[in-house]
Specification:
Layout lengths: L2 E7 L3 H12 L4 E4 L11 E4 L2 E4 L5 E2 L7 H9 L7 E3 L4 E5 L2 E5 L4 H9 L4 H17 L9 H21 L3 H8 L3 H7 L15 H13 L1 E4 L3 H14 L3 E3 L3 E8 L2 E9 L2 E12 L3 H8 L8 H8 L6 E9 L3 H4 L6 E4 L2 H4 L16 E5 L14 E9 L8 H22 L7 E7 L1 H8 L30 E3 L9 H22 L1
Parallel strand pairs: 1-2, 1-13, 2-10, 7-15, 13-19
Antiparallel strand pairs: 3-4, 5-9, 6-9, 7-8, 11-12, 12-13, 14-17, 14-18, 15-16, 16-17
Helix pairs in contact: 1-9, 1-16, 4-5, 4-8, 6-8
């Protein structure tokens, strides 16, 4: 009973995606999660008779011809287990003297041209460029038919080669086709979903995600916890197991090969064994903690992760109201990006260069849709997200507490500026910081997006397999393609396919 084909350490979306696909393909899988809730950042917690979504604001839902995620969902049978709610628009962008709502589909380009007629040529070039990037990432090689594989060097391969050689950043492309700094900020308004600086953020990642957001965006009814639960159901229905409150304390090895794990549950220690181990956690935990007693030379792996920058983190304000704020503020969108005038008018687009109060604020009004989160008819959720960095919160206990309260109140005040008296309907508020993410996921510096997307190519992400320990694999925000819900789900699918090919070839 303690022997498995695959053991997954952690139940974030990368681990759940990998485990689901392996279980669907007949492998005996065990997922061990140290927390009481599964899902990593894709989870919900309760406050005031309401589920609060810890991570998901919206999910890009693109054209099935280019959005690989749709194919993966179909392969897993996820669509039969979740309900997706279409969002009313891509998002709205607000500043003191500016308001622009971005619609879905073909109207996006027209809307932007109407607002910036002097940039019509550049806007058309932009949409053509993001479509090309999305097309290039439509499939992994094993999901292509014979004709697609034959034509790959001519239809797709050259795009990857160009990306790798030029290593273009978002600002490189935007600066080459667009002059208006405000338009550049608008096209990159949601950079906080992945990064903080368009001068460092790779073009391909931006382009693929934006193309699919413009195509369509959705929310998982019941929150990201419902998505994680659906993955869990798939695993269990296919003879796998998912266990919470099971903290892996050691990866067991023999002759430099991973053979199992030792974990703690309710104060007792257990050992389980497997032909393959997948780490769905920060790689530094793996190499500095879980393998530290195995007397292995891990220098190659440690060097690899030391040479990579970690992505920025987030501040999240969770706000509960006792009135339906969509009825009180009918012009309030689902996703509202509020730009401070100082940032909007500046040529500097690096979010972290500005004080927290001057950074772009994303306010998500969940009451705009049938979200499935409220357990009472008089509970309505709003969540604010702002880019941040761990070092901003590396304070002693008292200063940390005071700063949390200061930032929370500044967020509430700013919302009142744009939606007068909004705070008068608020019955609960709390703030999560990069330290909160560290405490919950144990990811160093609260890096919710793993390694920073600073360079093109999978070599700049964590390799899916260890260089030093055989049969040790990775699937998380740190691996390729990484970052965000889509990236981690596809990363888990990628790793699972690599492991299956290993089984078939053995």
């Amino acid at each position: 009973m303690n022997k498995f084909d695959v053991i997954v350490i952690g139940s974030g979306l990368g681990g759940l995606s990998a485990a689901s696909y392996l279980a669907k393909n007949g492998k005996k899988v065990l997922v061990l999660e140290q927390h009481s809730l599964i899902g990593g950042c894709a989870t919900c917690f309760k406050r005031k008779d309401m589920l609060i979504d810890a991570g998901l604001h919206e999910m890009d839902w693109g054209d099935p011809k280019t959005d690989m995620k749709k194919m993966v969902f179909k392969k897993l049978g996820l669509m039969e287990k979740i309900e997706l709610v279409s969002l009313p628009s891509v998002w709205s962008i607000l500043s003191k003297d500016f308001h622009l709502q971005i619609p879905h589909g073909g109207e996006v380009k027209k809307t932007l041209i109407q607002s910036f007629p002097h940039e019509e040529k550049g806007i058309k070039k932009y949409f053509k460029a993001i479509k090309l990037q999305a097309y290039s990432a439509r499939r992994f090689s094993w999901d292509m038919n014979k004709l697609e594989l034959f034509l790959f060097p001519f239809t797709t391969g050259w795009i990857f080669l160009k990306n790798k050689l030029l290593n273009l950043k978002v600002s490189d492309v935007l600066d080459s086709i667009i002059n208006d700094d405000k338009l550049k900020k608008i096209l990159n308004i949601n950079i906080g979903y992945y990064h903080h600086d368009p001068k460092k953020f790779i073009w391909s990642f931006h382009a693929i995600a934006q193309k699919h957001y413009y195509d369509g965006s959705v929310y998982v009814k019941g929150g990201s916890g419902a998505l994680s639960k659906a993955f869990e159901e798939i695993i269990c229905e296919n003879n796998g197991e998912v266990k919470s409150k099971c903290e892996v304390v050691e990866i067991l090895t023999s002759n430099s090969k991973a053979t199992g794990v030792r974990y703690k549950q309710n104060g007792k220690f257990f050992e389980v064994h497997a032909d393959n181990i997948i780490a769905n956690c920060d790689p530094e935990i793996v190499y500095n903690e879980l393998l530290k007693n195995q007397n292995l030379d891990l220098s190659l792996d440690i060097k690899e992760i030391k040479n990579k920058n970690r992505a920025c983190s987030l501040i999240s304000a969770y706000l509960i109201y006792d009135r339906n704020i969509s009825e009180i503020y009918p012009n309030m969108d689902y996703a509202n990006f509020i730009l401070d005038k100082e940032f909007f008018n500046s040529s500097n687009s690096n979010t972290l260069d500005f004080e927290i109060s001057k950074r772009t604020l994303a306010f998500v009004n969940y009451s705009k849709i049938d979200n499935g989160l409220s357990q009472k008819n008089d509970r309505f959720l709003g969540v604010v997200a702002i880019s941040s960095h761990f070092k901003e919160w590396d304070l002693d206990k008292e200063k940390y507490k005071a700063k949390k309260e200061e930032i929370l109140q500044s967020i509430i005040s700013k919302l009142d500026e744009y939606f007068p008296n909004l705070s008068s309907y608020m019955i609960h508020s709390e703030l999560a910081t990069p330290k909160s993410i560290l405490r919950y996921t144990r990811a160093k510096e609260g890096a919710a997006y793993g390694f920073s997307q600073d360079n093109e190519g999978r070599s700049y992400r964590l390799n899916y397999v260890s260089k030093s320990v055989k049969n040790l694999f990775f699937a998380s925000a740190f691996t390729f393609p990484g970052g965000g819900f889509t990236g981690t789900i596809l990363g888990g699918y990628y790793t699972a396919n690599k492991i299956l090919r290993k089984f078939y070839n053995s």
